[in-house]
Write a structure and sequence with these properties.
about 150 residues; alpha/beta; 6-stranded mixed beta sheet; two-stranded antiparallel ribbon; 5 helices; globular
Length: about 150
């Protein structure tokens, strides 16, 4: 699991100059620091969603959004009783971890949970086509400490 992202100061410098920065795709190059503090590559797979949550934390982002191809995180995905999650407390959402596919929605849900727990700020998952409504809190799945349970879309 990613702990920090090397080179984050360069990202901060570019953002300070109003540049659009694309970083963290594919999760990055896995590395550790040796006894002398030097970076050393290691064999591992770094999940892109968990890495972007760390990047967002290090950048002190106001809102962390994972834009994807679905409207919201769902329980009973692709089943007749599927429910889209509108809002969820991170601790309550974590209890549903088995509902989310490990190589698909699972890491996205864990990433937003991690961000909210680490920062106290909101995070969201939703469709790129709904990005303005996600930012406004009108679409997607919002993970927030402002509620105590889970709310579903009707």
């Amino acid at each position: 699991k990613p702990q920090s992202v090397t080179g984050i100061e360069a990202v901060k410098a570019l953002l300070a100059q109003d540049q659009i920065v694309i970083c963290g795709g594919g999760g990055g190059v896995p590395s550790i620091r040796d006894e002398q503090g030097k970076l050393q590559g290691v064999e591992a797979v770094v999940d892109k969603d968990l890495a972007t949550a760390v990047i967002s934390q290090q950048l002190d982002a106001d809102l962390f959004i994972i834009a994807t191809d679905v409207k919201a995180a769902c329980v009973n995905f692709n089943k007749p009783d599927q429910l889209q999650i509108a809002k969820a407390n991170p601790a309550e959402l974590e209890k549903l971890a088995d509902e989310f596919a490990p190589g698909s929605m699972g890491p996205k849900v864990q990433a937003v949970i991690n961000f909210v727990k680490a920062t106290g700020k909101d995070a969201a998952i939703g469709s790129l086509s709904d990005i303005q409504d996600i930012v406004a809190g009108k679409a997607g799945t919002r993970v927030t400490n402002s509620i105590s349970g889970i709310e579903f879309y009707k």
